[in-house]
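Amino Acid Chain and Its Fold in Token Form
===========================================
Structure side: the spatial fold of the chain, written down as a series of whole-number tokens.
Position: the record begins directly beneath this header, with no further notes in between.
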Amino acid sequence: MLTRENDGRHGITRKRGHSFRGIPWFKYLRVLTLLSCAILAIESPILAHPISLTEAIVDVQQDRVDVELKVLVEDLVLYYPVSANEDDVYPADALRKAAESHRTFVLDGLRLLDENGTRLSGEVTAVNSSGIVDKGVAFNEIKQFSVTYSLRYSASAKPDFLTVSQTFGGEKSILPAMMDCQVKQQGVVLDVSQPLLSGQSLTTNFDWTKPPTPPKNWRELKERRSERLKQQLGIASYSGLYSFFYITPYEVRHEILIPLLTLDEWTSIKRKDEAFLEVDEQKVAASQVAEFFGKGNPVSINGAIVQPVVARVNFFGLDIRDFAMNAEPRRVSVAQARVGIMLSYPSKNVPAEIHAKWETFSKFAPFVKSVIYEFNKPAIDHFFRPDDATFDWSNTNTDQLAEPAVKAVISTGAVPSSGQAEQISHSLIRNVYRAFDFQVEKETYDALSAVADGPLLRSLYLQIRRSLLMAEQGGSRSRVLEVSPVSGTMIGRPSPGEFQIELRWRVSGEVEHWGHIHTRENLYVGRLLVKVVDGFWKLAELKFLSQKRVRFETRLRE
């Protein structure tokens, strides 16, 4: 049996027990997740709050943005003093009057931002309330009838980005409103619709050099999405939380790419302007974020808890190149910015067992999907949920448990030929780079001592380390893939105890961040002095004569 109660604040008559009949299935599922809160809201006038379900079609033109916003009649009943008659029917005239009054509410609650984070100005150009029949709307049908608002926003010529958000449920709503948002470019659908909670944002970028045309079929739409995903380096959503979990020979690394708005839910970011975060504020916020992520989400390697090293905290704008090429800090819009956090868990040994736990969830991140990159294997997905927040892994490949192959080069005591000298030199150079497979400085030094004489160790360490840094990635050290000999030219005559040679070699290395890989290949020319020390050939001097980049590319991990 249905019972009626009155909300004294708004003079709204509402009923308990009505069904969600008329809601599309995907919205129905999402509403069910909030059902327990909804029951509280209905039972208590103090907690009572409207469940706003709207649909928006945002069509971006070359010089404006047109929006069609469909609002359920239920919203009008909840927000305005519209009372049902004794037959439980809301009069059509009262509903249409409420629909006109709702213009301001719609315009205030729907927010469109340009690429600079500036809110676009708009106006309601039409209200179509033909969905409200003359006989009125029965209480059990208020979710089946709607009013459509046409809005127009001024925009710059051919905008590159547009961010859509809504606050129909209020800035501090207990039960957030939900809006299903579909974005188009000149009438062409760009992607599937996205549900937006109150305060959540959706950013879309637009290509005006090749404007989209209607896809012929679903296969073509799928191919377009796949190509767009490659162009965006695998980051399909500007408002999504991305987690990348790397398992490497001497480091476990967790990289998190998170909207600033979501992060603000976990640890409030201080700023003067609520809409923007300045460069000097980012420096303070970076320390705050590092402290926040450094405390939670524990990781153990080979049975021992490892404290994370916060390797980087960056604030990125909308341009995909910002995090692909590690752009310089700049002022960012809070509604559009993303924060990149890199947590490094160094290990003295190759990981045999890993246990990780994710402890941070919110209404915008009720679960976390993480992409696991296990050595060079294809990526796999893992979901961290409040009721299952752990990830356990064990190494089944015994070859990966071996130490880096850094071996001393034995001297026979004979005078080496030019070919032998070249071979010895290339072996030493290859071992030098293999020593940098270790993540800990002391272990790298120990490995280098097998191929370099004492006085050279410090300068060699610094020289090679500097050569492995990728400026494009904020100075991240690349992982050496291959060291290839090119040629060698003897300098003077060799002796049983030493020789000099001018050597050419190629080094291929890669840095992998945020699910994509930067590969670089350099050609080096160096002059080497090689001596016998305690029965082993070792580098006594290494002078770099030239360094030339021969290849650089960015690709997605398959």
The chain has three domains: 51-218, 242-397, 403-556. The two ends are 57 Å apart (CA to CA). Confidence is low (pLDDT under 50) at residues 1-50.
